[in-house]
Design brief:
The complex is a heterotetramer, with one copy of chain A, two copies of chain B and one copy of chain C.
Chain A lengths: L5 H6 L14 H11 L5 H10 L2 H4 L4 H9 L7 E3 L7 E5 L2 E9 L1 H6 L1 H18 L3 E11 L5 H21 L3 E8 L8 E11 L14 E6 L11 H7 L16 H16 L5 E4 L4 H11 L4 E5 L12 H6 L5 E6 L4 H10 L4 E8 L4 E5 L2 E6 L1 H5 L29 H12 L8 H4 L10 E3 L6 E4 L7 E7 L2 H6 L1 H18 L3 E10 L6 H21 L3 E7 L3 E2 L2 E2 L3 E10 L16 E5 L10 H5 L12 H14 L3 E6 L4 H12 L4 E3 L9 H7 L6 E5 L4 H10 L4 E7 L3 E4 L2 E4 H16 L1
Parallel strand pairs in A: 4-5, 9-12, 17-18, 24-27
Antiparallel strand pairs in A: 1-2, 2-3, 3-6, 4-6, 7-10, 7-11, 8-10, 9-11, 12-13, 14-15, 15-16, 16-21, 17-21, 19-20, 22-25, 22-26, 23-25, 24-26, 27-28
Chain B lengths: L1 E9 L6 H12 L7 E12 L5 H15 L5 E7 L2
Antiparallel strand pairs in B: 1-2, 1-3
Chain C lengths: L1 E6 L6 H11 L2 E6 L10 E4 L19 H11 L4 E4 L1 H8 L6 E3 L7 E9 L15 E8 L3 E3 L2 H9 L3 E5 L11 E5 L5 E4 L18 H13 L1
Parallel strand pairs in C: 1-2, 1-3, 3-4, 4-11
Antiparallel strand pairs in C: 5-8, 6-7, 6-9, 9-10, 10-11
Classes of the chains: A alpha+beta, B alpha+beta, C alpha/beta.
The structure holds adenosine-5'-diphosphate and magnesium ion.
Chain lengths: 745, 81, 223, 81
């Protein structure tokens, strides 16, 4: 019944505590006692347990992630690196851009709409926290088989949730991915990316300094959301086991977040904050301990001042609550009244809950009683670090090469092509993307289904940024080291295809259980590959997220490193689109095709995965990117060739503006023949269309960069004709677009 | 012909942004009666003849499976008099 | 020529509407819902968005904003008002326009490039179009299905007050394919499509929407 | 403390796509009881003490002005027993 205060804890050192129920290991609990020199109070125990969880402390991944720092290429662009809420890069003209991907996988399985919605809400706050105006979002998603019953439950809800929250925030959705694979059944992946922009001088950090400065909590009231296991403590402390009911699902309030954004930006514009932190995972525990440990002194919080939605919350629960749409700012007392005025203007609740002290500890009191007295660093940063066992998984030894019937007669081409482009992974995704606002803010230069999303940053100078997210989980399954590299290279290629120059990287690493040595091997190889490729490409990793325990029973998901690359384009008016704009253009394939079908969609349709991922040719990819950037002015259209191979790329290119094409692939020039020519997913290839008058210029540049350039056809007509076999665009369109409506309406 | 009503409300512990928006709009319009407002859904289901016990059990079942989301909502089934 | 754009809590396309006015050659003036001051603007745009989160009903809460009191009075005196999407919903809730906008028939939010026919060019917002012009403008809404009683519909049709009509496809189940209407006097226009997102080829499907904003500027000059 | 309920339904002549969606989903799940379904809103308003006649009149007023749109909806106010 009584509050478990620091004094009580000191006086009763042997009180039993439910550390195990809270997910702590015996040695972790012992460490806490050692740090404090006594047993923790129940509030302290709550804080440590959640901050030392896998999700918040990165205890299994830390030892690997540090490669991103160690191998980091020299980059002048990096203004804020890993460690803050999101990294910040310089894009020139005084602008800084921040972007990051996060996962919200498990909540989205439990309650698809709200899980996805709050996932968007969380990443947007991370971006806002840096001082930036959020300007766009993307949503890389993974689902179980498209026709599985549970996918029909999960997918529409997740799409509606991403749209419901993002649309209401006024953030254009400019891209993402939708991929189906058996391993995501029971464990869909909802990753969300947000990008924001600010002036250099407006960058904000999560830090609390200046004795006497105030800690202000603003935004939504605190409810019992997401406190999970911590209710154990509440029932312990408040005895009699009748803890009030706590929500099992968090409900997002996008309207509250929208006004929070406007309110925060107005506060930033008047330079009213010293430090700021959003409340995400671990709520106030995280915000107070991180702010304090990044600051100069200590912090004193009066927890009873936190405005509550549910008055029955115990102090432990208030500390743990993950209620959405809240922020915590450090401000000078002299600026309080101005701060409050802005909050009032936007109808945002704001409350002073404490102050920065000249001590070294984080002190939290509840109605005058001291319930937390900890060195904040020990909570925020000195969590356990594990070197989990790693073992190359056995499945790698029993992989079999892909064996496919070769296609050569035109009838078979047509049938195979229609089957491929109507398969859920390749089919048109407008059923999904039409539920997202891509226009709002009026700066969307490119959005789905283009190779990358692109937004204008400055209307006068036409400066813009492009973003692409990519993952090829099947390649990562076959070869996680190269899989990660290939994903990043694909992202870079997508960026360059639209005319932007790759600048920085974020990532979201979705994996199975870190306690499985095989998964841990996949993870460590992935990080090694990603760190290496970033060094080779000269791109800094600015931040990211790790999501472990994505598995159903003993079956882990495919290792899914989702890579996001940010690029800069000096003049967005020069961007290149994917659709053929007119008849009479010459169509070329840049790059060579080979006959490896491993991990391809075509093999997947035949129930096979194959035995080896492509070996990335980094030098060739760099030359290709450089060629794309220099020759871009001569392209009438350009489209990356990846999932679904040339067949899919051609389909998308002709359908975009309903301009057909006649294609002639010369079988004997392609290793693997026509089948490979159309369906292999060899990396490093781009489909371009060039006005005949510019062919010589493009050829000269392709020679300069030593990139193979194959003429494969000409645009025009109302059909896609491949080696004499004609598919009317209407038929092609039907096959490409019907799939989602049939599955999900 | 009878009307069966299914009322679906968010569980009390679940955030109700819509109810909150109404609760804060009311006083701005000079209405001060509400201590709190929650917003839910109401389904009017027309059935043939007088509802039988078996039919009501079916409706309960449908309310559980389709009309409400048991993760965040509760429901009540009643027959309109 | 000063044209106001009202920001309600949750307005989203206010910045785009301000940009459209600027590109059309006008002086955009931001207005805030909580003040009844129209700042000497000569016309006003209620922009798209999710004011108050679209909670309760779209536009239901914004309708009671102090600025709306001023706008309602001005509108009754012939002041040009354009409601776009959420703005249209607010105008219906305010009873400046008849009917109501309800959930899209397929219950999905829909964002698409929509073909439209301009039917009524006797409004300050559409007089730059020719009757029967076919334009492409984005729609993006979850509750854009125009519904009204039979009498109201008949009157709207008889008086030629249908400003925009969907063609090729009806995206939301709107009665009579209605995408936009005007009040009897013609000064108040509500449209579901977003002309402010069709003002530059770079960022929109067309430039067809700009005429809404040039029209009102010409009207004002002509006065 | 008492609870006042406001029920808001679309007028019968107004298209109700949500109700229709439910009506067509039910038989797909094997539920055949419904001749038709309409979906509306339900507000639970908590007030201090027993609701007075004046308070109920206020609620009626709020239901008319804010909670419903008379162009397309009707409402009923009742006190929860
Ligand atoms: N896979 C990763 N790659 C790079 N940085 C990472 C990765 N995972 C986490 N980080 C970084 O670690 C820090 C802590 O992450 P996290 O706790 O998720 O931050 P937040 O709670 O603000 O979202 C952040 O700076 C984040 O960018
Ligand atoms: Mg954060």
């Amino acid at each position: 019944m009584a509050l478990d205060t620091v004094a009580t804890a000191a006086a009763n050192p042997t009180t039993e505590q439910p550390w195990r129920e809270l997910g702590l290991k015996e040695d972790e609990y012992a460490r806490i006692k050692e740090i404090l020199g006594r047993r923790p109070t129940s509030s302290e125990l709550a804080m440590y347990s959640v901050m030392w969880s896998e999700h918040c402390s990165y205890k299994s991944s830390k030892v690997h992630l540090k490669q991103f720092g160690e191998k980091a290429p020299k980059s002048d662009a990096l203004l804020v690196g890993i460690g803050e809420n999101a990294g910040v890069v310089d894009i020139g003209q005084g602008y800084a851009v921040t972007f990051k991907i996060e996962s919200h996988n498990h909540p989205s399985f439990v309650e698809p709409y709200q899980g996805a919605a709050t996932g968007v809400g969380g990443i947007v706050r991370d971006i806002l926290t840096m001082g930036a105006r959020p300007i766009a979002i993307m949503d890389p998603l993974r689902f179980g088989p498209a026709d599985a019953v549970d996918t029909r439950r999960v997918l529409p809800g997740i799409i509606a949730g991403v749209g419901g929250y993002g649309n209401c925030l006024g953030l254009p959705n400019i891209g993402g991915e939708i991929v189906f694979d058996e391993t995501y059944a029971g464990n869909p992946l909802v990753n969300a990316l947000c990008v924001g922009v600010m002036r250099h001088e407006d960058i904000k950090l999560a830090t609390a300094h200046g004795t006497g400065n105030l800690v202000v909590l603003f935004g939504a009231k605190t409810g019992g959301d997401g406190i999970g296991g911590v209710s154990v403590l509440a029932s312990e402390t408040f005895a009699s086991g009748k803890a009030a009911k706590r929500p099992s699902v968090q409900v997002g309030d996008p309207f509250a977040e929208k006004v929070l954004i406007e309110c925060s930006l107005e506060i930033f514009a008047e330079d009213l904050v010293i430090g700021i932190q959003d409340l995400g995972g671990a709520g106030l525990s995280c915000a107070t301990s991180e702010l304090a440990s990044a600051g100069s002194g200590g912090m004193a919080i009066q927890l009873e001042k936190v405005p509550l939605r549910d008055p029955s919350l115990s102090p432990e629960e208030i500390l743990m609550s993950e209620s959405q749409e809240r922020m915590c700012a450090i401000i000078e007392p002299s600026k309080l009244s101005r701060f409050m005025k802005i909050c009032k203007k936007w109808d945002v609740t704001a409350t002073v809950i404490g102050e920065v002290t000249d001590g070294e500890h984080l002190h939290i009191t509840f109605n005058g009683e001291l319930i937390v007295d900890v060195p904040p660093r020990t909570v925020a940063h000195d969590g356990p670090v594990y070197n989990r066992p790693i073992a190359k998984p056995a499945y790698l030894d029993s992989l079999k090469p892909v064996t496919l019937p070769a296609i050569s007669n035109p009838k078979e081409i047509k049938a195979a092509l229609l089957q491929l482009i109507s398969s859920p992974n390749i089919a048109d995704k407008s059923w999904v993307t039409d539920q997202y606002d891509r226009y709002v803010q009026g700066n969307s230069v490119l959005s789905q289904p283009e190779d990358s999303g692109m937004v204008r940053i400055d209307e006068q100078t036409h400066l813009g940024v492009a973003i692409s997210t990519d993952a090829n989980a099947r390649w990562s399954y076959l070869d996680p080291y190269n899989g990660a590299k290939l994903a990043l290279l694909e992202s870079c290629r997508n960026i360059a295809t639209t005319g932007a120059k790759p600048l920085a990287v974020t990532n979201c690493l979705n994996f199975g259980s870190p306690e499985d040595p095989g998964v841990m091997w996949q993870f460590s190889e992935t990080v090694r590959g990603l760190a290496d490729i970033c060094l080779e490409m000269g791109l800094p990793v600015t931040g990211g997220n790790v999501s472990f325990y994505n598995q159903t029973g003993a079956v882990a998901i495919l290792p899914t490193p989702v890579i996001g690359v940010l690029g800069v384009i000096q003049d967005v008016r020069t961007r290149t689109k994917m659709g053929l704009p007119a008849a009479g253009l010459e169509i070329f394939q840049l790059g060579n095709t080979d006959d490896n079908f491993s991990g391809s969609e075509y093999a997947h349709l035949h129930g096979q995965i194959g035995d080896h991922a492509p070996t990335p040719d980094i030098d060739a990819e760099i030359r290709l990117v450089n060629l794309l950037l220099e020759a871009q002015q001569f392209f009438q259209s350009a489209h990356d060739i990846s999932d679904g191979g040339l067949a899919a790329a051609l389909t998308e290119t002709v359908l975009k503006n309903s301009v057909g094409a006649t294609i002639e692939l010369i079988e004997q020039y392609i290793p693997g023949g026509l089948t490979a020519g159309l369906f292999a997913e060899t990396p490093g290839r781009v489909l371009i269309a060039v006005d005949p008058v510019n062919i010589e210029e493009v050829r000269a540049l392709s020679n300069k960069y030593n990139v193979p350039m194959h003429r494969i056809g000409k645009s025009g007509g109302s059909a896609l004709v491949i080696n004499g076999e004609s598919i009317e665009l209407t038929e092609l369109r039907r096959a490409h677009t019907e799939t989602f409506a049939k599955l999900f309406n | 012909m009878a009307t069966i009503i299914v009322e679906v409300m968010l569980k009390p512990e679940i955030l109700d942004p819509q109810g909150q928006a109404v609760a804060s709009a009311l006083p701005r319009l000079g209405f001060t009666f509400a201590k709190s407002v929650r917003q839910g859904k109401r389904f009017e289901i027309i059935v043939d003849g007088e509802p039988t016990a078996a039919q009501l059990a079916e409706v309960e079942n449908a309310a559980e499976k389709l009309l409400s989301n048991p993760v965040i909502e509760t429901y009540v089934v009643r027959v309109e008099k | 020529m000063r044209i106001g754009v009202v920001t309600f809590p949750g307005s989203l396309d206010d910045s785009s509407a301000l940009r459209a006015i600027r590109l059309a050659g006008g002086t955009p003036v931001p207005l805030f819902h909580a003040s009844d001051d129209l700042k000497e603007v000569e016309a006003v745009v209620l922009p798209g968005g999710f004011s108050y989160g679209d909670y309760l009903r779209c536009g239901a809460i914004s309708r009671f904003a102090p600025i709306m009191a001023s706008i309602i009075v001005a509108a009754e005196h012939g002041f040009p008002v354009l409601g776009i999407c959420n703005g249209f919903q607010i105008l219906c809730e305010s009873h400046l326009l008849p009917g109501a906008l309800t959930r899209n028939q397929d219950l999905h939010f829909v964002c698409t490039d929509q073909a439209l026919i301009v039917e009524n060019t006797d409004t300050p917002w559409t007089n730059g179009y020719a009757k029967g012009d076919r334009i492409i403008v984005p729609i993006k809404n979850g509750e854009g299905s125009f519904q009204a009683g039979a009498d109201t519909l008949k009157q709207l049709e008889d008086d030629g007050r249908i400003v925009l009509r969907y063609v090729d496809k009806n995206p939301n189940g709107s009665q009579h394919d209605i995408a936009g209407i005007s009040n009897a006097r013609g000064n108040v226009v509500g449209v579901m499509p977003h002309p402010e997102q069709a003002i530059e080829l770079l960022t929109g499907p067309s430039e067809d929407g700009l005429t809404f904003f040039t029209s009102v500027l010409h009207t004002m000059v002509g006065r």
